[in-house]
Design goal:
The chain is of the alpha/beta class. 50% of the residues lie in helices and 10% in strands. The strands form two sheets. It has a five-stranded parallel beta sheet with strand order 2-1-5-6-7, sandwiched between helices. A two-stranded antiparallel ribbon has the order 3-4. α8 links the parallel β6 (179-183) and β7 (197-199). Bound molecules: ligand PTJ. Ligand PTJ is lined by residues 34, 36-37, 40-41, 43-44, 47, 81-83, 87, 107-109, 164, 166, 183-186, 189, 202-203.
């Protein structure tokens, strides 16, 4: 990842991490990311450091299963919050194009102003339609702002990608019978544990990773996609990530560095 707007030499050992921080800071300054987003980023960074700041083979398999689910879906929707909008706006638009998915803004700390700014930001990065502003649907069982959805967006979706989710909504979406794909660097978080497909990877690597798999599988038949979905084991993916964090190596017991 390169960014002409910031002055960090690409040779810096923590280039990606510093670039990500800068993007979140810029997101807060632009009124896209909430201040709580800075704290969430710090939590994520700690886990990413322990994972060796790379995509584990188990996470890559989860990204492939996510791509298969999105391609099989009748109505896939990608949910975007303030951190995702700051970190991977163009990459979300690319994934939506590769999987014919809708994009919907859904915020924990919802304000009309931030909703509008994020929608504008996504349009500037190529999104033709951004849902979430109508908010004429509700996710039952939630009493905070994340319950507000578009009836013809997340309300109608059969598969939803929810990066950096909070545990409550992850569980509530699961209760509605929707297939839920979560991206979260913490394999012990409630949202990762509630997901049909937990992707324990940084959103900056995971979103392009899913897109790459979706492009690779674009001509695959339903049978092939269904077998990728059936073979994926969420419990195994979480265990592999936890093991990599605890042992400081890869899932096969190798060295992370
Ligand atoms: O924009 P809003 O108002 O919807 O708010 C979004 C945040 C992220 C602030 C809100 O949902 C929140 O407070 O989230 P939490 O409860 O802090 O959870 C964030 C989770 O995402 C944590 O488990 C982090 O480890 C994880 N995380 C943080 N940064 C990344 C990440 N996972 C993947 N990639 C990241 N870059």
């Amino acid at each position: 990842m390169t960014d002409p707007d910031i002055e960090i030499p690409e040779s810096h050992p923590r280039y990606e991490s510093l670039l990500t921080r800068h993007r979140i800071e810029a997101g807060v300054d632009a009124g896209i990311t909430s201040r709580q987003g800075l704290i969430a980023q710090g939590r994520g960074e700690a886990f990413d450091y322990l994972l060796g700041e790379r995509t584990l083979p188990a996470a890559d398999a989860a990204e492939r299963a996510a791509a298969a689910h999105l391609l099989l879906a009748d109505h896939p929707v990608l949910s975007v919050n303030g951190n995702v909008a700051a970190l991977v706006p163009g990459e979300v638009v690319d994934l939506a194009a590769a999987t014919s998915a809708d994009i919907e803004v859904n915020l924990f700390n919802r304000t009309d102003e931030r909703m509008e700014r994020i929608a504008d930001h996504l349009r500037e990065h190529g999104a033709s339609e951004v849902k979430g502003l109508t908010a004429d649907g509700r996710i039952p069982g939630l009493d905070h702002e994340r319950a507000k959805v578009d009836a013809d967006g997340i309300g109608d979706a059969d598969v939803v990608l929810v990066p950096l989710e909070d545990g409550d909504r992850a569980e509530a979406l699961g209760d509605l019978g929707k297939v839920e794909i979560v991206i979260d660097l913490n394999p012990m978080s409630r949202s990762a544990r509630a997901a049909d497909v937990p992707i324990v990877d940084n959103v900056i690597r995971a979103v392009p990773g899913i897109t790459e798999h979706a492009r690779d599988l674009a001509d695959a038949d339903r049978e092939t996609l269904e077998s990728i979905v059936a073979e994926f084991d969420a419990g195994e993916a979480l265990t592999a990530a936890e093991r990599a964090i605890r042992e400081g190596g890869d899932e096969d017991g190798g060295d992370a560095t």
